[in-house]
Amino acid sequence: MKDSTTISKQKLLIETEGINAAKKTESLVGNLKYAIIGAFFGIVFVKAEIISWFRIQEMFRFQAFHMYGVIGTAVVVAAISVFLIKRFNIKTIDGETVQFAEKPMHKGVIIGGLMFGCGWALTGACPGPLYAQIGAGFPVVFVTLLSAIAGAWVYGYFQDKLPH
Amino acid sequence: MEFLQQPWSWYVAGTLIGLTVPALLLLGNKQFGISSTLRHICTAVLPSNKPYFNYDWKKEIWSLFFAGGVILGGVIATTALADPNPIQIAPQTQADLTALGVQNFDNLMPSDIFNFESLFTLKGFIFIVLGGFLVGFGTRYAGGCTSGHSITGLSNFQLPSLIATICFMAGGFLVTWLVLPFLLNL
């Protein structure tokens, strides 16, 4: 019994990250639209100074409202959008029903969350801003990104030995 | 053009970031989340027989296009839309960081820490390399980052995402208040 729960939990951890729920396979050119959204997103990150190590410090020191305002507004706007999509069963442009993934609860949410928080205060960046910082002319952040990729790899390699 | 060059307010930025969630959902049934790109890069570049890397990364290639777009956005924002003025941070933050030894406040990043020379000092190694490792390992262990948990997860009322967000903040407070005073004086 214990074995089967362990296996299904492991399976859950791996499969709920299937973030691409589209049934339709997209061409390479079709994927360019995500690059365009990414570019808009990167511009917002830099222009609102979310990629700034100093702004992250303001946030963690409770000395400015800026970052709390950005994240809070983003959550409210996203929540209203998600509500409207569910309420009116709005379909994707290809006519598919929008899928929402459940986030599984496990010990890693807490331990990994604390670890990421520490890294966030050190680097002044979450993964999105890492990419934007590189584009914004801080080439040394490429080393930070490589290290983050190494961190992801080490997690994947030792996943079955870590508490979940 | 000038209003695009000056720093954007929190409500404009927050609204645009929030709209990324429905944009990705409606354009291609995609859940907004960035830290998963770290996993896809591992799977694509360093294949392994571990179950975590055993999936079709090509199906997730959209998120690598998205990440490439974010880099490009960083270039556009600092060239065509560049702000000629130095960043203005809260006076108290500047005073506190100055007291801890930070000297350069001209750019978005403190250039006295984030440069290639400091990479080979203990201080630079901790901020750049150890910090990056914690971001990668921590977000994958937690199953998401600020985008996947704090924005996508919270907007869909996921309790694990609320717990994750509280832990992100707790880790940040811990390092900012207890560890940075020591690290910045290394």
Helix percent of chain B reads 55-70%
Helical element count of chain B?
Answer: 8
Low-confidence stretches of chain B: none
Structural class of chain A: mainly alpha
* Main β sheet profile of chain A: none
Question: How would the global form of chain B be characterised?
Answer: globular
Distance between the termini of chain A: 17 Å
Strand content of chain B: under 5%
Number of helices of chain A: 7
Please state the average pLDDT score of chain B.
Answer: 93
Q: Which stretches of chain A of 5+ consecutive residues score pLDDT under 50?
A: 1-5
Oligomer: heterodimer
Give a quick account of the main beta sheet of chain B: strands, pairing sense, barrel closure.
Answer: none
Structure in words:
The complex is a heterodimer of chains A (164) and B (186). Chain A has 164 residues and is mostly helical. Chain A has seven helices and no strands. Chain A has helices at 2-15, 32-47, 53-60, 66-87, 107-123, 127-135, 141-158. The longest helix of chain A has 22 residues, at 66-87. Chain A is globular and about 45 Å long. Chain B is an all-alpha fold. Chain B contains eight helices and no strands. Chain B has helices spanning 2-5, 10-28, 36-45, 61-78, 91-99, 122-142, 146-155, 159-183. The N and C termini of chain B lie far apart (43 Å). Classes of the chains: A mainly alpha (164), B mainly alpha (186). The interface between A and B is large, with 129 and 136 residues.
